């Protein structure tokens, strides 16, 4: 009687209900639920990893750097090899940083446009302006300083005291289309001859006293040309320079290169301190 009473249909139904409520189920169902939870957790972790990878991809990949073509000795191509002060310095910096780079030379307008749009990662060697700084990220350390300087024949007695007034008596040669001197002389106190079509032609005119007493151009360009002409002993450079411009390796702002730019600063300064930077300059200058 007791068993019949205890296992009555009502009690059996109640017992099954309790078992169902407390989690009675097939072990496979529990494993499936656990697997789903683990899968969701793995997916979330993978999403976080992908986000982190996407943020760092631009540092891990090859850094594409552009420069101006036919701008010796700053940047130029010879026998299929890209050479120049800027490419050599940049290669050494990134070698020490253990970052792989590629360097390509293009017309200046295309260089700036591609970096502005993020199609390339950086370019050399623009001067800093506030307008450019809104488009490109400039490191603190200049890649190089370009100076506009005056040259005279080696036996000349002409001197320059830093004022244009001291050069009023002379005729100063420049390259056709090179307007830096005109910009520095808004009052037109100088006599400027811009009939030379090239640096080589202007140097020949200067050495042989053909209508110009001085020649003004960027120091690196003139000394490189003199080396190629094997006439470094025929002229001398006057001090001080007319003006000086800091030129940089500028990065695109389409990607976050703030940390890379800081690292570039540190290594470039290291090269200047240990003499490597000056040795590269000496390769292309006097």
UniProtKB/TrEMBL annotation:
InterPro entries: Solute-binding_3/MltF_N. It comes from Tindallia californiensis. Keywords: Signal. Residues 35-56 are annotated as: Disordered. Residues 46-55 have a biased composition (Basic and acidic residues). This is ABC-type amino acid transport substrate-binding protein. Residues 62-286 form the Solute-binding protein family 3/N-terminal domain. The keyword Ribonucleoprotein does not apply. Gene3D superfamilies: Periplasmic binding protein-like II. The lineage of its organism: Bacteria, Bacillati, Bacillota, Clostridia, Peptostreptococcales.
């Amino acid at each position: 009687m007791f068993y019949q009473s205890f296992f009555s249909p009502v009690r059996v139904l109640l017992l099954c209900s309790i078992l169902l409520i407390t989690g009675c189920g097939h072990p496979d169902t529990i494993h499936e639920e656990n697997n789903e939870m683990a899968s969701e957790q793995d997916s979330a972790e993978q999403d976080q990893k992908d986000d982190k990878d996407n943020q760092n991809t631009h540092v891990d990949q090859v850094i594409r750097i552009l420069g101006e073509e036919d701008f010796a000795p700053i940047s130029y191509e010879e026998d299929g090899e890209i050479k120049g002060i800027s490419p050599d310095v940049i290669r050494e910096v990134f070698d020490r940083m253990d970052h792989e780079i590629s360097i390509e030379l293009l017309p200046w307008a295309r260089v700036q446009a591609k970096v502005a749009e993020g199609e390339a990662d950086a370019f050399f060697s623009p001067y800093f302006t506030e307008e450019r700084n809104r488009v490109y990220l400039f490191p603190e350390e200049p890649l190089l300083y370009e100076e506009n300087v005056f040259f005279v024949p080696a036996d000349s007695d002409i001197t320059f005291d830093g004022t244009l007034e001291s050069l009023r008596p002379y005729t100063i040669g420049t390259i056709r289309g090179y307007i830096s001197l005109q910009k520095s002389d808004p009052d037109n106190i100088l006599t400027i001859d811009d009939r030379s079509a090239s640096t080589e032609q202007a140097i020949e005119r200067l050495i042989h006293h053909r209508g110009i007493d001085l020649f003004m151009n960027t120091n690196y360009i003139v000394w490189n040309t003199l080396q190629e002409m094997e006439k470094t002993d025929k002229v001398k450079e006057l001090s001080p320079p007319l003006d000086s411009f800091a030129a940089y390796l500028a990065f695109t702002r389409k990607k976050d290169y703030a940390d890379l730019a800081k690292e570039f600063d540190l290594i470039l300064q290291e090269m200047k301190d240990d003499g490597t930077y000056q040795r590269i300059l000496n390769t292309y200058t006097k």
